Amino acid sequence: MLHMHVTSWILGLILFLVALFLYKQGNEKGGKIVHMILRLFYLIIIFTGGYLLFDVYLANFSMPMGAEAITKGIAGIWLIAAMEMLLVKTTKGKPVAGWWAQLIIALILVLVLGYIRLPL
């Protein structure tokens, strides 16, 4: 399940960038198609992340690892929300600087917790 989670995150980030570039180029139809596929990947990411959280970390709950795993889960949902809001605000032509900042902070937090702190 870990490989599926990592693969879905990588594909999700790639689809996010593709949708963003399509929206920036004015290709609304192509951007909407990629955006809908990205939303499917959001569901896969949330399902596999929830499975990993409950099956691996919370089944043998120990205080530092369990708390960090829960924090990583919350940061992952924050990252998905920032990605989604950034795409929606871009399509509407509204300012997105704050959402870029949130996306970068959440991405750094997820990567640090996922690849440096947590054992998997």
UniProtKB/TrEMBL annotation:
It comes from Oceanobacillus indicireducens. It is found in: Cell membrane. It comes from the Bacteria. This is UPF0344 protein GCM10007971_24510. InterPro entries: UPF0344. It is a multi-pass membrane protein. HAMAP family: UPF0344 (MF_01536). Pfam families: DUF1516. GO terms for cellular component: plasma membrane. Belongs to the UPF0344 family. Keywords: Cell membrane, Membrane, Transmembrane, Transmembrane helix. The chain crosses the membrane at residues 6-24, 36-54, 69-87, 99-118.
